[in-house]
Amino acid sequence: MHWWAKEKHRGGTPVVVKMDNPNNWSMVELESPSDDDFLYHGGAAAIPKGGRNKNAKQLTWVLLLKAHKAAGCLASIASAFLSLASAVRRRLASGRTDTENPGGRSRFYACIKAFLWLSLLMLGFEIAAYFKGWHFGAADLQLKRLYTLTNPFAVKDVFGSLYSKWVLIRVEYLAPPLQFLANVCIVLFIIQSLDRLILCLGCLWVKLRKIKPVPKHALIDLESGPYFPMVLVQIPMCNEKEVYQQSIAAVCNLDWPSGKLLIQVLDDSDDPLTQSLIKDEVRKWQNNGANIIYRHRVIRDGYKAGNLKSAMNCGYVKDYEFVTIFDADFQPNSDFLMRTVPHFKDNEELGLVQARWSFVNKDENLLTRLQLINLAFHFEVEQQVNGIFLNFFGFNGTAGVWRIKALEESGGWLERTTVEDMDIAVRAHLHGWKFIFLNDVECQCELPESYEAYRKQQHRWHSGPMQLFRLCLPAIIRSKISIWKKGNMIFLFFLLRKLILPFYSFTLFCIILPMTMFIPEATLPAWVVCYIPATMSFLNILPAPKSFPFIVPYLLFENTMSVTKFNAMVSGLFQLGSAYEWVVTKKSGRSSEGDLINLVEKEPTKQRGSSEPNLEEIKEKERRAFRKRKHNRIYTKELALACLLLTASARSLLSAQGIHFYFLLFQGVSFLLVGLDLIGEQVE
To answer: Where does the Glycosyltransferase 2-like domain lie (predicted)?
Structure first.
């Protein structure tokens, strides 16, 4: 045993601290003092001389070190908040306010702003009342009412008199209608949740039974011979110079006899440079043997529907049996037609075969990850279940094959709404045509990477169905389809999933919930605020299991998007100005590395003297395309709602409502981040 091990332990273990500078220190050894250092037998006379001072010094060192560590944590938190505040200040200084369509949207914003100022006034009033002793728990609300009614002389000052009258107004006039509206929204919420649950159970049944559409015959049948009907492929585009090359290249590489395939590039661009680039690309593929033509409209009315309608009026279309549509950012696999067209053989009732979308930029940022959750549920659950059990779903506008006869019998493309794809699908279903959804056939495309592009896309997708519902309701009622199918289309397809969902999402969580904080006599149960939304988010995320870490951001972001969806729904239902707004979704031209390699391998033979395509050059070109000056937008409605929800969360602290406080706090922060455009890419 070494000599230093025999030294008697006295007064606790020494504390050795290395401190190079106040912000960088390390502790080599630190142990708590032993019991012998504090407990001495025999009373005060038995305490060694200087022992008390030594223990006090050690305890002081421990407290100082802990205080230093706490100060370091606080400094880090303060630094993070200062960085965030600085970023917000820069965004506000360089941002552009969301001021499009000042008509209807400004009225909507004015209502939110008035509600915000009222809530701030009420918060100040409630805080003053709280510090004057007017703080009651939820269980005391009835006692409060009886007390203020039966004891009018209990209030001694002017403020107390005003607050007691406010309580009476709350109890008698404000709480009953608010509670009634809350109960109605809760019922709608439960119905919509049951619909979502039934769809999930149907999807589970499909998975367990391995049900999927199977063509009756293969393309090449030994008895009937090969089946290669005439197919027309249309690529509508408008000022989409970022993606036209890859989509045209993918379509020109489809495996189908060249004599049985015609490709129409339907260019509605009003930019001369973009027109020239697309023409050159089409000419290049024509020189390499592709059966492809370029069409440009002089009168560009009707948006995409007008473009498709104009192309279908060409005389040579009568020679074709099927038409396939791909938007400008879609890149079908070479076997797309081989896997979709055979379903039409010997199935004369089939009008549409729809393929699933996949996304090349699904992991680009938080916004694309959250979009993936919604779209994965839409394809995996909604469209697959409806396709198998009902033979009906909304056409997605792209990556689908139509029987031209079905389009013609249904009235063709109409420009009356901004959702021409849903319009033609509804009319075809009313004429008895059946649809098939192929969940195992995918077509790559892009997700919007900026909140501005995503918001405009969602506005169009949620205002159009309400326009269509107004126009189609008489036709649905007069149609010859069964009563059950009419009920499904009216109550489930339109009302529940297109109208009720955005209505209760916005009304319940962005209006009623904050109001119940200021009118506590009306209440929302915790299971409505937390448990059912969490369960529904869990079900939504099941088709995209890799997205489970984003379940909380997804729940908050969906409630945040309810503002845009509710505004769009109201605009479409009442035919307001923004209902007919059509903005082409901004594309970035991203491609996966596999797509780039495929493009290099399948690039047409170059003319003499030109260089060979290089993968690194293509990647570098893609990188340079993103090095453009960008800015962010400031969304006033979202910022106003953020302040409203944060104000309501502050009010909930006075009544100690835990779950409600945390929900309002996090939801308010979510609105704040979206309002400052801190989610997704910035806008070019």
So the answer is: 323-531
- Going by their DSSP bridges, the two strands 331-332 and 434-445 should be labelled as antiparallel
pLDDT at 168: 87
Does the annotation mark 595 as catalytic?
no
Cβ atoms of 275 and 269 closer than 8 Å = yes
Using alpha carbons only, what angle is made at residue 543 by residues 539 and 544, rounded to the nearest 5 degrees? 105
pLDDT score at 98: 55
Contact by Cβ (8 Å): 674, 544? no
Q: Which two tokens stand for residue 305?
A: 């529907």
Q: Please return the burial class of 379, using the count of CB atoms within 10 Å of its CB with bins 0-12, 13-18 and 19+.
A: buried
Residue 64 has pLDDT above 90, yes or no: no
pLDDT at position 240: 87
User: Quick one: angle between helices 551-573 and 532-541, nearest 10?
Assistant: 100
DSSP 611-637: PPP-HHHHHHHHHHHT-S--B-EE-HH
Token pair, residue 493, equals: 């397809």
Beta bridge mates, 401: 324, 353
**Of 329, 421, 423, 677, which one is the catalytic site residue?**
421
C-alpha–C-alpha distance, residues 456 and 583, integer Å: 7
Q: How far apart are the first and last CA of the chain?
A: 75
H or E element that contains 19: strand 16-21
Average pLDDT, the chain: 81
Work out the number of other CB atoms within 10 angstroms of the CB of residue 683: 17
Angle between helices 244-252 and 593-602 (to 10 degrees): 60
Q: Determine which one of 37, 98, 268, 423 is catalytic.
A: 268
Using CA atoms in the order 605, 610, 611, 614, what is the torsion angle rounded to 10 degrees?
-50
Pairing assessment for the beta strands 322-325 and 231-237 based on DSSP bridges: parallel
CA atoms of 319 and 568, how far apart (whole Å): 41
Nearest one of 327, 582, 553 to 459, comparing CA atoms: 582
Catalogue all structural domains in the chain, each as residue range(s) with its CATH number.
220-447 (3.90.550.10)
CB 524 within 8 A of CB 660: yes
Angle ∠(431,436,438) on CA atoms, nearest 5: 160
| Beta strands 220-221; 225-226: pairing state | antiparallel
What digits encode the pLDDT tens for the residues 342-388?
Answer: 999 989 999 999 999 999 999 999 999 999 999 999 999 999 999 99
Is-contact 314 323, C-beta < 8 A? no
Q: Is 268 among the catalytic positions?
A: yes
Backbone angles phi, psi at 137, to 5 degrees: -80, 175
125 and 163 in contact (C-beta within 8 Å)?
yes
Question: How far is it, in rounded angstroms, from Cα 600 to Cα 592?
Answer: 13
CA–CA separation, 283 vs 232, rounded Å? 18
Which run of H or E residues covers position 28? Answer: strand 24-29
What is the token pair recorded at 98? 């969301």
